[in-house]
Amino acid sequence: MMTTLNGRLDDPLAWIGSVGDDQYRAIDRLYAPYDTVFVGRVTCEEMASYWPALCRRMSEA
Predict the structure, then answer these.
(1) What is the secondary structure of 13-58 as a DSSP string?
(2) 2: exposed, middle or buried (Cβ count in 10 Å: 0-12, 13-18, 19+)
(3) Are 47 and 37 in contact (CB under 8 A)?
(4) First CA to last CA across the chain, in angstroms?
(5) In the chain, N or C terminus with fewer CB closer than 10 Å?
(6) Reported pTM
(7) What is residue 47's predicted lDDT score, i.e. its pLDDT?
(8) Tens place of pLDDT per residue across the chain (61 aa)
(9) Would you call 9 helix, strand, or coil by DSSP?
């Protein structure tokens, strides 16, 4: 999932030809030191239904 500064939330494959696993790992490494990521209202509203399920899966792991 990718988001722009203006709040567009979309599948990265809709923007570019392909995103490799190595690119996702690089993104994960960039965010790993942080325990908080600031998102805007639009992103928050669009992701609200996804986050509770993710939190449940992470707590079960």
Answers:
(1) GGTSS---HHHHHHHHHHHTT-S-----HHHHHHHTTHHHHHHHHH
(2) middle
(3) no
(4) 22
(5) C
(6) 0.43
(7) 78
(8) 566 666 666 666 666 667 788 988 888 898 889 888 887 777 777 777 777 776 677 777 6
(9) strand
Inter-CA distances, 31 with 9, 14, 17, 25, 37, Å: 18, 23, 23, 10, 8
Single-letter residue type at 5? L
- Name the 3-class secondary structure at 3: strand
Q: Rounded to whole angstroms, how far apart are CA atoms 38 and 31? A: 12
